[in-house]
Amino acid sequence: MKLVVVESPNKIKTISSYLGKDYEVMASFGHVRDLPAKDGSVLPDEDFAMSWEVDTASKKRLTDIGNALKNADELILATDPDREGEAISWHVLDVLRQKKLLKDKPVRRVVFNAITKDAVTEAMRNPREIDEPLVEAYLARRALDYLVGFTLSPVLWRKLPGSRSAGRVQSVALRIVCDRESEIEKFRAQEYWSIGARLNEKGRSFEARLYSVDGKKTDKLDVGNAADAEALKAAIEAGTFSIAAVDKKPTRRNPYPPFSTSSLQQDASSRLGFAPARTMQIAQRLYEDGIITYMRTDAVQMAPEGIDQARRAIVKNFGADYLPEKPRVYSTKAKNAQEAHEAIRPTDMFRHPDTLRGDADRHRLYELIWKRTLASQMRSAEIERTTADISVFATSRDIALRAVGSVVTFPGFLALYGVEAKEDRDPNAEEDEDSRELPPLNVGDRPKLEEALIEQHFTQPPPRYTEASLIKKMEEIGIGRPSTYAATVTVLQDRNYVRVEKRALVPEDRGRIVTAFLESFFNRYVEYGFTASLEEQLDLISDGKLAWKDVLRDFWKEFQSHVEEIKDLRVSEVLDALNDLLSDHIFPARADGSDPRRCPNCGTGQLSLKLGKFGAFIGCSNYPECRYTMQLSDAATGAAEAGTGDGIIGTDPESGLEVALKTGRFGPYVQLGDGAEPKRSSLPKGWTPDSVTLEKALQLLALPRPVGDHPETGKPITAGLGRYGPFILHDGVYANLPDVEEVFTVGLNRAVDLLAEKAAGGGRFARGSRSAPAAIQTFEHADGPITVRAGRYGPYVNQGKVNATLPKELKPEDVTLEQAIEFIAAKGGASAAKKSSSRSAGAKKAPAKKAAAKKPATKKPAAKKAAPKSKSVEA
Questions:
Q1: Could you read off the pLDDT of 660-674 as tens digits, one per residue?
Q2: So what's the pLDDT on residue 838?
Q3: CB contact at 8 A, 749 and 806
Q4: Is 287 assigned a catalytic role?
């Protein structure tokens, strides 16, 4: 019997069916070992010795593999065909050797790029040894990531409180995003006007753009104001038109190569809206089901059998006319593309995407791959491009227009997408001139003017990166690898360095500060060129041309020395550097031209970046005499221009004091009056400054609110907001409220029930929990169901967050809908009262629900979690 070890358990059944009863297939569930997240896992002083740790789940799996190996004649390592797969095989083999389970049994390494019978059986016929250079490249990469993370992150924690960590590739990716944001902030829009005409020839309309004025060719920004645009428009309207020249050129449009990991992630993001991590998740399933080839690859070339199958599928679906005379051969741009054998393609080109319609996401992604692969081997589209130059006569200016259009004379690969091939274009790109079709035009034709066209425009800043375009940029400058792209983008979001808004990556202030710090004091290590050169060295290691420990020694010697120098920096030096580098962001120019760093409170101090326990904020240099503070995000949006930073909401009718909305170090808050210790209250979670009215502010300032005296103890119950959210308090006992709004409306009956449940062990809970009183009656209502319940201290009606106690003389089963609405409205449910007259007639009474019998709690065994597949982990 031969023991085969694969990565994913999803492959076991399929591969077992291919190999037969003489093979036992087991899974490692991804990586089985990793470097512990603690100091000392990599020891540079001991020739970069690495200490590996096996997690609990992997220990059992390795034990199972070891037990199976005792009865096996041979060990076959069949993990994925990339660097990480090679590393996993090496880890498994190393553990088995340490346990002395191998003895004299032969060990073979096999790789297959697709989980099909032919691919698997062919791989078994051609085993090899573990690729040591690939493993060494993995070890070098892992050691570098660890050393950077565990050396640089503590410096960040000391110098930039509130920062999370810094990784080798992640920090450069973050810099790319932050650099683009700086470009956007510094951008100043420029006005320009487009000039053209809609003409008609032989009953067909077409458009032409301004090409030259007074013999000088016009550029996009040449017409910069409305007066010039109107003058040119008037000249066009006064003129007559003649076709001066017509040029027709045949052109070809070639198909794109098959997908690599990067291009698949970009296309799936643009066309399907999938995040890179989601794309890889779906692609993994397609691969494990034998539908596509391996999905982590730099390569764009296809295996000969894949090309042959694609060409036969083209003839079957479109005919021989759509097949090029020779197969198309593509080459990768990567210098050392060793991630896999070939591009991502279907394992069977005759499997139509419609066969996967049962799973929408899998169908859409497979259709993208299927079309791209098939198109890559089809004939080019043949297009006739027509350019017509048009003279404008009898005007005060010498004006020429140009019309451009094209006609598809042979669709070629575009037939796969539809002749217009909109699916094959960038969905975010504007329509260009070439996509228009012109009427037949000849020299001497005199088209008629339908309308002179002018339109105002403003230049636009460069767009923010999306997840897809960031991956494209990383690939262009040579940082990261297919197995790391999605993980790198994800970790930036997980660490709150960037956020996603309408698919665009927006750097958080925390991320910008970390980037500014690294640029100021570790610039070499976040330079694009340096990181790319390090990736090239790792590629040379995997190619067997460079010793991996030599690379580590060279890097560590300089890096460690630099870190030691930075450790001695004073915080004031760090702040000065950050203030300078981030000045455009945190101290934007004021409209009145005054000093953007002058304190708006005291008028004499200078605003500066400050570092506190919870991160960065803006403060005054005259502290503690001036306690002006502001959140960094408010500074970036120009909040400093608001004068004192205060916003007066109104006046408290009882005290006559002004109620102000302010922003402090820990966020927005409301304040009553001034003085030495004015009453303040922070805005609760979910409340935005824009939503705060005088009524809401006074409600906040009135907290804690008395609810009533407890009927048993006679002691008061209060409602308030605390560190952990809204609560009620009685005799030192707190009970949580499920919603912030309820702190202003909770009544005595509801409060007593909450406290009773807390005493009974209910702890935190939400409305509708099993321990809530059963509904005696339920009424359907447009604003939400109204229920009648029997509370511990009497019956009451409930709608949403509002509870109203019933009069003693009214039995809960006798309550009508109209009465329930009145009680709710009297307690504060105004919306119910407003709508009761028009809706109560149509409301239906639902049958009373019986209280469900309580079942004894049963403790379920904890579900076992599969070990995540670790493709590249950055410290």
A1: 887 665 667 888 887
A2: 41
A3: no
A4: no
